[in-house]
């Protein structure tokens, strides 16, 4: 099972080596943000913690937590820790509230990003010379450029396709013998659809690297079967430096390896802020150890996951493995006392034979009480009753199920909006 590595020494370091490096890097990054940014300094001061208080890895718990708010409030570059002349690139996430978060990068930050991303390509089996077709947007979204920087570092042949024009996308993949396809999960589904319409096969395609949205196991299987590829789950976010910075699963598909020489991850109970035990689900909190322009410190990601293992994996990598992301805390839906995540609805829908890969969850709110309507596309023969029954069995309450003919629900080329809130009066 041992594969090829982009950086064998780091990827297979012993736990002691990783922790020693993390300790040194934690001390350095805390000193850096404290000395170079007023907002960080005030935050640390108000928590009564100074850089010299950080001596061991455990001392990370002394540091204040941060969240999206602090980044939004400091828009555009208030939290930057380097002089403006050192910034050479930026990316931005808009988020649901509309106030954007901007991530600046120094030259060294771009190398750090490329290193993390190149490890992901190699971990998925990518080899120098392989054609990689990058379908996330090249722009403010970090997906396209991050996958590009990493592909350069891994020595791949870059096809910077971006999203859209899906027929051309399929022809490009056929003609250039694309071996690695990367994308936002819902775009993977769209490519399959168009390939079927065009009656094309892509025999050279072997590896799919998808992420940016929580995706269920049955959805992974659909993409894997539909494209005839091995699917990898890649993770990262604007705040930590972009796609791939937080890792990916390896060919063992037993959790996401987080690049621990670059990040410290903690899992906390989102209500109390206290650490939870390994194996227990909670909110992921991330400290960026090696970024210069804007290293996040104990950043509350709002993503839910759990630690699967800290032992070395069959692939030879020693970095901690976390479970695929369940969803964002703010995406949790509460109906009649039952809590669930969109991913659980997806998981159920994708197991009903004949149900398509596009769906919508409509949360109808009347007098403070939520009701759920689930719209799915399906082949003839699938009824609303079948959908309702499956969801009731899986989730414990009865949403309304509306079935549409295939192709009727809207398609997106970026992250799909699955959940819609509707006020009923
Ligand atoms: O979505 C980075 C990315 C691009 C990852 C392309 C993978 C592929 P943001 O737009 O800042 O960055 O959104 C980050 O998306 O906090 C998660 O909630 C979600 N997310 C990202 N990857 C995954 C994944 C990019 N593999 C937010 N599984 C994160 C589940 C994911 N959720």
Q: Topology of this structure?
A:
Elements: H1 8-11, H2 15-36, H3 38-46, H4 68-73, E1 89-93, E2 101-105, H5 107-123, E3 131-134, H6 142-153, E4 157-159, H7 166-175, E5 180-184, H8 185-198, E6 207-211, H9 217-227, E7 230-237, E8 242-249, E9 256-257, E10 263-268, E11 282-288, E12 299-305, E13 307-309, E14 321-322, E15 327-328, E16 333-335, E17 338-340, H10 342-349, E18 355-366, E19 369-378, H11 384-395, E20 400-404, E21 419-423
Parallel strand pairs: 3-4, 3-5, 5-6, 6-7, 18-21, 19-20
Antiparallel strand pairs: 1-2, 7-8, 8-9, 9-14, 10-11, 11-12, 12-15, 13-14, 16-17, 18-19
Helix pairs in contact: 2-3, 5-6, 7-8, 10-11
The protein binds 5'-O-[hydroxy(phenylacetyl)phosphoryl]adenosine (DLL).
Structural summary, described in words:
With 425 residues, the chain is α/β, with parallel strands linked by helices. It has two domains: 1-329, ANL, N-terminal domain (Rossmann fold, 3-Layer(aba) Sandwich); 332-423, 2-Layer Sandwich (GMP Synthetase, Chain A, domain 3). Helix content is 29%, strand content 26%. It has eleven helices and 21 strands. The chain has helices at residues 8-11, 15-36, 38-46, 68-73, 107-123, 142-153, 166-175, 185-198, 217-227, 342-349, 384-395, and strands at residues 89-93, 101-105, 131-134, 157-159, 180-184, 207-211, 230-237, 242-249, 256-257, 263-268, 282-288, 299-305, 307-309, 321-322, 327-328, 333-335, 338-340, 355-366, 369-378, 400-404, 419-423. The strands form five sheets. It has a nine-stranded mixed sheet. A four-stranded antiparallel sheet has the order 10-11-12-15. Strands 20-19-18-21 form a four-stranded mixed sheet. Helix 10 (342-349) crosses helix 11 (384-395). The longest helix is centred in the first third of the chain and has 22 residues, at 15-36. The termini are far apart. The structure holds 5'-O-[hydroxy(phenylacetyl)phosphoryl]adenosine. Residues 93, 136, 142-143, 184, 211-214, 233-238, 242-243, 301, 303, 325, 328 line the site of 5'-O-[hydroxy(phenylacetyl)phosphoryl]adenosine (DLL).
């Amino acid at each position: 099972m041992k594969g090829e590595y982009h950086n064998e020494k780091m990827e297979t370091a012993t736990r002691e080596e990783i922790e020693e490096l993390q300790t040194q890097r934690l001390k350095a990054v805390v000193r850096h943000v404290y000395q170079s940014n007023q907002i960080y300094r005030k935050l640390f001061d108000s928590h009564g913690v100074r850089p010299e208080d950080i001596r061991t890895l455990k001392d990370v718990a002394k540091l204040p937590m941060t969240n999206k708010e602090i980044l939004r409030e400091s828009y555009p570059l208030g939290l930057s820790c380097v002089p403006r002349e050192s910034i050479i690139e930026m990316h931005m996430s808009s988020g649901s509230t509309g106030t954007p978060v901007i991530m600046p990068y120094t030259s060294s930050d771009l190398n750090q990003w490329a290193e993390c991303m190149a490890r992901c390509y190699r971990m998925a089996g990518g080899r120098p010379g392989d054609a990689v077709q990058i379908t996330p947007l090249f722009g403010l979204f970090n997906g396209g450029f991050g996958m590009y920087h990493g592909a350069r570092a891994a020595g791949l042949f870059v096809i910077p396709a971006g999203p859209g024009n899906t027929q051309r996308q399929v022809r490009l993949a056929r003609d250039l013998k694309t071996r690695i396809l990367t994308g936002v999960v819902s775009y993977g589904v769209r490519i399959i659809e168009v390939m079927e319409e065009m009656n094309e096969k892509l025999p050279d395609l072997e590896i799919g690297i998808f992420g940016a949205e929580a995706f269920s196991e049955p959805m992974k299987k659909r993409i894997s079967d539909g494209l005839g590829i091995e699917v990898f789950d890649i993770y990262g976010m604007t705040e930590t430096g972009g796609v791939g910075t937080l890792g990916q699963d390896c060919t063992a598909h037993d959790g996401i390896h987080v690049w621990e020489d670059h990040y410290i991850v903690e899992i906390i109970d989102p209500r109390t802020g206290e650490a939870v035990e390994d194996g227990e689900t909670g909110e992921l909190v991330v400290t960026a150890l090696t970024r210069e322009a804007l290293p996040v410190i104990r950043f509350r990601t709002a993503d839910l996951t759990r630690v699967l293992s800290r032992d070395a994996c069959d692939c030879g990598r020693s970095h901690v493995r976390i479970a695929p992301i369940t969803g964002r805390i703010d995406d949790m839906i509460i109906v009649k006392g039952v809590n669930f995540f969109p991913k659980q609805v997806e998981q159920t829908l994708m197991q009903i034979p004949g149900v398509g890969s596009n769906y919508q969850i409509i949360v109808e709110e009347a007098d403070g009480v939520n009701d759920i309507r689930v719209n799915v596309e399906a082949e003839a023969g699938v009824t609303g009753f079948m959908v309702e029954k499956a969801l009731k069995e899986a989730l414990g309450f009865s949403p309304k199920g509306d079935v549409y003919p295939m192709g009727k629900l809207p398609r997106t080329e970026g992250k799909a909006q699955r959940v819609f809130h509707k006020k009923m009066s």
